[in-house]
């Protein structure tokens, strides 16, 4: 009974999984598509609304420009009337009255002579109008210099926004400049246009602001806003409009009270004005919200149908699978003989049951084979481990024996060469040669052949002593005696005492930093002498020997010794530092071995760069004296 209860629990658990899976498969994409469509629609409406706002802003910027241009052109035409150019004040006054009757936007008209003195002024509001001096006014000077002036926003009678417009008075007959015609133009007409396009009961608002002075409210779709003492748009909107670099633009604006607007702006041509149009975001999203509501209703209906369909499908699938599970549990316990009968429908699940039966038969045979194979593998692994261990011991022993033989061979070679039986006879021969030379010198006239042979004997003695010295230098390991040395000075001293042949051109390029190193002078001299000597030997017909020092990164100094000889062949390059290896007819093959040994003892490094037919460079890396013991050798 307990087993049956557990099986039923597993059945319902699988049933609920299938049910959840079908719901996710069915409703998940539907929900994602719905959410995507709603957001896409909302974003599309937002972009469309913003595009319309921009179009309105651009259109009204053109309308504002035309409004100002129209009245400016009226003034230009009036300034060409003969009465104005003749500077007849009475006729000018009469023309002013006619202009104001025809155009209510003109609040004040004035005429100035070329000195900036006001000759005639007519205002729309009664009161005594005293004549003024505009000689230093920006509007008068710009109109006089450039022909016209449009600008200088102000509030007429501290209420009406007005624009100062000034044009030159030119005699049409003589084209001679007579004075300046200036007007105060009311901008209330712009507010009327905005109010007509954006009625008060509508959601959208529009305004025109000036950049100089910053934020000056020129017009508004609600004209009452213009006549307020502190008539300005909210600071958040002004910050955007006054700091933009583009001629048109727009986007979403959030005010401190969390009101959200879609705003668009466009600058007015030839004027430092900006037309601004806004619409609440809720209006732009209203259609999208309605679509969201309808999609939600459809989604709920689809969800109910999918739930019913998923219930039926899950029931049809889980019942056969439950039977297969019971058979698999028994098969897992190794009960190959007591499996339930798998009577399944003729579909994919039935084919699965048939395959399961075949698998159980095959599994029974394969299990026995795997057990036998496992035992064979374990036995083979034990044998292999024993063999590997034995071979490893043999290799280690052979390696130790080889190292031991190499050491014994090197010691034997040095012992056979460096001995008292060689150096002592050489000393006796050298003394005898000296005695013979002394006696011959006392006799006076010496046969040249005898002198030549004596020189040959001395040269050979020197050569033999050099060989012995090289072997002893390589074999001996004395304690280093490092000293602080200026590398440049050390090299100069070495060069000055070295006998360079006449056919060799010495070039030195020493670092201006004059690096200081911590070296054993005697060993380092021997090292450099070996490199210089090798360079001279490979250039018997002449060449350039170059010595270069330079400070490299990470606290190292590089000392280069290069020649222009034939270079080193690749098959020889790998062996040049091997003791007793040489390609010369005479020599011990220890010169470069000594170089590497000296560099190793100084915690340095030696590298070779060679090119066949061009020459060879030996690079010696030495640590600077600052931190000689903590710096690692640079990577080659």
**Strand portion, in percent?**
15-25%
Describe the strand arrangement of the main beta sheet, using strand numbers. 2-1-5-4-3
Content-based structural category: alpha+beta
Low-confidence stretches: 1-8, 627-633
**What is the quaternary state of this protein?**
single chain
Query: How many helices?
Result: 15
CATH superfamily of one domain: Histidine kinase-like ATPase, C-terminal domain
Name the CATH class of one domain: Alpha Beta
User: How many beta strands in the DSSP annotation?
Assistant: 17
CATH architecture of one domain: 2-Layer Sandwich
Mean pLDDT figure: 79
Structure write-up:
By secondary structure, the protein is α+β, with helices and mostly antiparallel strands. Helices cover 53% and strands 20% of the residues. Among the domains are: 80-186, Beta-Lactamase; 420-472; 479-623, Heat Shock Protein 90 (2-Layer Sandwich), CATH 3.30.565.10. Helix 1 (2-79) runs antiparallel to helix 8 (286-332). The protein starts with a helix and ends in a 13-residue tail after the last strand.
